[in-house]
Design goal:
The protein is an alpha/beta fold and 90 residues long. It has helices at 23-30, 35-40, 52-59, 74-82; strands spanning 11-15, 42-47, 64-69.
Length: 90
């Protein structure tokens, strides 16, 4: 549903651990959005999880652009902005 025409975010910073749904559950919902939205939005997993399996699962997901450990620095945000043409960051 493209009801927010023209208001597609460039990035979504997605926490792995959220109170109502976790990051992977969010991705299930994100996957149901239009191809236009998915192609214009980069989803970056932001987490405190150092678990190798979480990182691997995230980076193997087709909609995850990057995986960043908290706390997020200004340098990491600037790198994302500069590197939007690459397929993955993290």
């Amino acid at each position: 549903n493209d009801h927010a025409e023209g208001r597609i975010p460039e990035f979504i910073f997605l926490d792995l651990n959220m109170p109502i749904m976790n990051g992977f559950e969010f991705l299930d919902h994100f996957d149901k959005l239009s191809e236009r939205i998915k192609s214009q939005t980069k989803v970056v997993m932001v987490t405190t999880s150092y678990h190798h399996q979480d990182r691997e699962t995230a980076l193997n997901h087709p909609h995850i652009y990057g995986y960043i450990l908290k706390p997020v620095s200004h340098d990491q945000i600037n790198l994302l902005k500069q590197d939007v043409r690459s397929s993955r960051v993290g």
